[in-house]
Amino acid sequence: MNLIEARGLHKHYGSVRALDDFHLSLAPGQILGLIGPNGSGKTTALKTFLGLCPLDGGEVKVLGRNPRRDRKGLMAHVGYIADVGILPRWMRVHQLLRYVAGVHPTFDRQAAERALAETEVRLNARISGLSTGMAVQLHLSIIAAMQAQLLVLDEPTLGLDILYRQHFYDSLLQDGLAAERGVLITTHEVREIEHLLTDVLFIHHGRTVLQMSMDDLSTRFFKVTTTPERAGVLRALHPLHERPGTSEIQMIFDGADGVALAEAGEVSQPTLPELFVALVGQS
Amino acid sequence: MRTWLTLLRREWWEHKSGFLWTPVATAALVILASALALSLVSGTDTQFSYSTQQQSGADSTSDAFEWRGSLLQMLDFSSWSAPVLSERAAQFRSLIAQPFVLGHFLVAVFVLLGGLHDDRRDRSVLFWKSMPVSDLETVFSKLVFAVWVAPLVAIAAILTAQAGSLCLLTLLGPAAGVTGVELAWQHAGLLNGAAVLLSGYLVQGLWALPVYAWLLLVSAAVPRVPFVWALLLPGAGVVLEGLFFRTSVLSSQIWAHLSFRALPRPEDVDNGAVQPAVGFAEQLALLGSSDLWLGVAVAAGLLAAAVYFRGRNNDL
User: Residues B60, B65, B71, B75: is their CA dihedral positive or negative?
Assistant: First the structure.
């Protein structure tokens, strides 16, 4: 069974279409990156999965449940981290742990305290007094101690300095947080997460442009770098997108014959941002 | 059950400063004021006199009074009859309770107005909603804590202030000529008074439920300045009703449900009633009134709307 199954989602705020026929599926073990520019509907999509806002159309099942009708039941199995500022600032760390232990059926408070003992986060500290990096560590150790089947991470490293960003993703993988679960992650710093994704979904104007595994992506899409003189040969092979330059030209191909491409230029893997631009056109 | 206790504990942690320190500070002030008053009126020689004349129909009564000596000597407990002692004790108890009742109400108003709004402003609502707690549980835990749990602290503080004042009287009184202090203790009825407060807050919570529910609804629904909305909308309703129907049902209902009907209040000294105004019987009568249950029905609608908005509104 898929952890998330979303079909034909529609959501508008006034005349703005935040989601417009959006599709997504997430299976256990997948780390799916939701990639799109600001305002493309990423956060709205995540909020509908968590039951935080009602849909105007379409159907979504998360862990087999309707998230709108059963947010409480759902959240016993979902870990959610938005950008670093959402922990209640007035609370003390030990109060937060007691609270989660009190409302969450599978939260292991000792495990969270053990994890925190390795950090500089003191149990008696007020959350408002923690640095952004420490707050993230706190939130991560809570999520790690609650055996969620699904992790939803919305711009989890926003506001973190560069050292902590890398640390965040490292500990996400090290603690085995990602394994055996499903992870859905959005970020505008695509480069940071590219290497750890198993799957990717491009979203543009609230619409699913493409959802595919990284493996399929690497056998289907190619980037060819060539000179202006040889560009004509490549253009005959119908590139998705062409990025002109004075000395060299880059083209992205979808499902073309690799041998033919190699004869006309240097073939490599497009980065996710390059692929995104190729698929949605210049924007 | 575990979730409920946790949610109530959460409220306690967040609003300890309001619901604990307000009554503690009030109790300290009341005891200080008692000490000050007692030391002012003891020892010094005071003299005063007054006379009144009342005309009612053909009957005319006059009353003259003259005093010379320590004011505290007026507290001549040994010369008072048991009913008078009980009545004055009830007066004393409810007089002391007043600042606490008002203090709790004001803190509750601000806590409820912020309860479903402040976490949207600082975005921690996203954390609370990422926990397995329903919107209904969230709204009701805030209501139950502010309306029925927090008064327990106020009642404890009232009891402390009453006992503290009596202790001061016991310490300072006899030297200033007060007689029969032990009688004052005997008839003080502090525990009975606390029981009346306990049941009083139970009933008062139901009586004022439309007010509290309204505050929660505004807190959940409006994007900013809930305090202004909470006042403005009913105000507009009152004005419109006056303009179009030339009636004032809304305003009289609002004032009625804002009053502390189920809690002891000091009786107007002049009309000389023997019983305190509100006791168990009066609370039971209020509990049986259709006015109270009509208000509860209105509150249920307001609370349902608050839960609805809590489910839709996230960060501002």
Answer: negative
pLDDT at B309: 96
Number of domains comprising chain A: 2
Flag if B126 and A86 touch (Cβ within 8 Å).
yes
CB atoms within 10 A of CB B281: 9
Residues B238-256: pLDDT tens digits? 999 999 999 999 999 999 9
Give CA–CA dist A86/B126, Å, rounded: 6
Q: Which residues pair with A225 in a beta bridge?
A: A250, A266
- Tell me the shortest Cα–Cα distance from A215 to chain B, in angstroms: 32
Minimal Cα distance from B6: which residue of A?
A102
Cα distance between residue B231 and residue B215, in whole Å: 10
Residue among B119, B124, B133 minimizing CB distance to A103: B133
β-bridge pairing A199-204 and A78-81: unpaired
CB distance B7–A103 less than 8 Å?
yes
- The verdict on B128 touching A (C-beta cutoff 8 Å) is yes
- Confirm if B116 and B306 have CB atoms less than 8 A apart: yes
- In tens, the pLDDT along A122-137 reads 999 999 999 888 888 8
Range of the domain at A121: 4-205
Preferred mutation among A68, A71, A150 to probe B, highest tally of B CBs within 10 A = A71
At residue A118, the pLDDT reads 87
The answer to whether A98 contacts B6, with C-beta atoms less than 8 Å apart, is yes
Residue B38 in any domain: the answer is no
pLDDT tens-digit map of A67-119: 999 999 999 999 998 876 799 999 999 999 999 999 999 999 999 999 899 88
Per-residue pLDDT, B268: 55
Measured distance CA(A31)–CA(B20) in Å, rounded: 47
Given CA atoms A78, A79, A83, A88 in this order, what sign does their dihedral have? positive
CB contact (8 A) between residue A98 and residue B312: no
The answer, for B68 touching chain A at a CB cutoff of 8 Å, is no
User: Which member of A80, A99, A105 has the closest CB to residue B6?
Assistant: A99
- Cβ-count burial of B35 within 10 angstroms (0-12 exposed, 13-18 middle, 19+ buried)? middle
Residue B309: closest CA among chain A residues belongs to which residue?
A53
Q: Taking a C-beta distance cutoff of 8 angstroms, is the pair B70, B176 a contact?
A: yes
CATH code for the domain in which residue A192 is found: 3.40.50.300
Is residue A252 located within the same domain as residue A194?
no
Contact A158, A84 (CB under 8 A): yes
Q: Which residue has the higher pLDDT, A245 or B205?
A: B205
| SS3 call for A20 | strand
- Indicate if A245 and A132 belong to the same structural domain: no
CB atoms within 10 A of CB B31: 19
pLDDT at B55: 62
